[in-house]
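Hello forum,

I keep getting stuck at the same step: I have a sequence, I want structure tokens, and every attempt I make locally crashes halfway through. Rather than fight my setup again tonight, could one of you with a working pipeline run this one for me? It's a single chain of 163 residues.
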Amino acid sequence: MLRTLKIVTAVFVALLGVLHVFGNLANLQAAMGFVAVVTSAADQPYYAPYGPPISSNALHVAVLAMILAGEAAVAVLASAGVYRMLKSRLAAPDVFAGATRPAVAACVVGMLVWFGLFIVIGEGYFMLWQSQAGAGPIAGAMRYGTVCGFFMLFLLLAPDTDR
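Reply #2:
Ran it on my machine without issues. Output:
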């Protein structure tokens, strides 16, 4: 039963990555606009950023590409975990535990994207927390990063002894 739940958990992590990539690609102009507003500090009502803002369009593209690459990595790693767990669902516990590693890595990458890029850099450096543009993305990043963290704990801590 727990092995099946771990596989389903990895499927949801893969979907989280896929849906974010497709959502950003489907709204590419809005995603680029958001990155430009945040990194150029164009929407800062209270405090001026203490570091240099990014005004280069090429750098805005690079930042969005980094976000998309992270989200795609979540999808690919979690999908690889699903595949490996399905292949080893009847194997010995240590073999199945090894098969969960790509899905665990997907969760870590998800936390790096949503906590690292959005919370630490976006909220901390670019002060996204104080702008109107930042309210939704920061709340979303908190949700997605937390989900990845809890899913990672489940993948790592729940026993793999059932078949």
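The helical segments are 2-26, 28-39, 57-87, 93-99, 101-125, 135-157. If your local run keeps crashing, start a new thread with the error log.
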